[in-house]
Amino acid sequence: MRYICVFNSTIMRSFLFAIFFFACWMPVWAQGGSSTFDYLLLPHSARSAAVGGTNLSAIANDASLIYDNPAFLGYEMDKTLLFSYLPYIADVGIGNISFTKKWNEKSSFGIGALYAHYGQMLEVSENGDILGDLRANDICGTLFFAHDITNKLRGGISGKFLYSNYAYNTAIGIGVDLGLSYYNEEHGFSWGLTGKNIGRQIKAYEDNLAVLPWDIQFGVTQKLAHAPIRFSVTAIHLKSWEFEDGYAKNDKFFSTLFKHLIVGVELLPSDNFWIGIGCNAKRVVDMSLTEGNKLGGFSAGFGFHVKSFDIGCAFGRYNTGATSFMLSLSTNFIEMQL
Predict the structure, then answer these.
(1) Predicted confidence (pLDDT) per residue in 186-229, tens digit
(2) Which of 101, 107, 179, 241 is the most exposed place for a label (fewest CB within 10 A)?
(3) Residues paired with residue 102 on neighbouring β-strands, in sequence order
(4) Which of 318, 292, 273 lies closest to 87 in space, CA to CA?
(5) Bigger pLDDT: 95 or 28?
(6) Rounded to 10 degrees, what is the CA torsion of 313, 318, 320, 323?
């Protein structure tokens, strides 16, 4: 079994382009303040949920992955309708729906919506009187666009309009995701780079405007030359080295480095079936602090293609209260007509 990872002049040029691309946006990222709309941080794809929650580099004809990296969007996803749902905890759930379309041979676009509902709650007065029911939900409308820069490098952008309604309080925000995706099919090597949730509120719940939970992420994926297995390593929280939590104050160098990484492994026995497992190191550390959460941060899933349908399922623990099951279902209308 031979492990190949080839860096040539083309890869180096694409890396330099990526650095320049994101350096242009650095002044926008530098905006400070507390973050809001944190439901954007949860997985929106069963396939990425299976391999740790985020994957920006593993190439697959899976429209749900464009929520991780908009540069995954391409002509191969022409006329694809996608639905995903994550029952988070209790009666809290997060879902998304999207449709992707080819613009021309090098460009594609899509439209999508994320929806988070938090169940039904009682409205109680200061004296303990029940006044009725309260509802809370978040909605994010998204427009996607991607373009092939070269035959191996693709760039993408997604614009987000966010609306939040918690009882009598509302908030509005705008943001973008920026992404690059490089794929060398001959050597089974790919990488991805994203700036996620770059933006802020334009209307706050009360007085102070907050930024979106933005981040810079980078990942690499390598498929083994003589086995249907590929490995992915994704670096997250790259906007800063230190973590803003009380448990990180005394971390050593390697402890901090470990918490920036997500590791995923996929078994790909055919083009129509996959199995994935993952480990989100930051989540492992955070959830190990609570009794009975030894599997926190670990995830697994599988997916298969039947006729014109793709089905993906994943299991993971994103909080201390329950293990969540995520489902993604997509269909391609072009395949349906064949």
Answers:
(1) 999 999 999 999 999 999 988 788 889 999 999 999 999 999 99
(2) 241
(3) 108
(4) 318
(5) 95
(6) 0
CB 28 within 8 A of CB 177: no
Minimum mean pLDDT range among 7-16, 58-67, 80-89, 222-231: 7-16
Q: What are the structural domains of the chain?
A: 9-336 (2.40.160.40)
d(CA 329, CA 46): 9
- Closest by Cα among 20, 65, 41 to 116: 41
Contacts 24+ apart (CB under 8 A), 325-328: 325/87, 326/43, 326/46, 326/49, 326/84, 326/85, 326/86, 326/301, 327/46, 327/84, 327/85, 328/45, 328/46, 328/47, 328/62, 328/64, 328/82, 328/83, 328/84, 328/303
Per-state percent for the chain, helix, strand, coil, to nearest 5: 20, 50, 35
Specify the residue for token string 């464009």: 66
pTM score above 0.90? no
- Counting every residue written for the chain, the total comes to 338
> What does 245-264 look like in DSSP terms, one character per residue?
SGGGTT--HHHHHHHTEEEE
Query: Could you tell me the two tokens for 266?
Result: 């996929």
**Nearest alpha-carbon partner for 157 in 190, 194, 121:** 194
Residue indicated by tokens 């929650």 = 53
Q: Residue 17 has what pLDDT?
A: 54
The number of CA neighbours under 13 Å toward the Cβ of 67 is: 32
Single-letter amino acid code for the residue at 158: S
Tens-place pLDDT, residues 2-12: 333 444 445 44
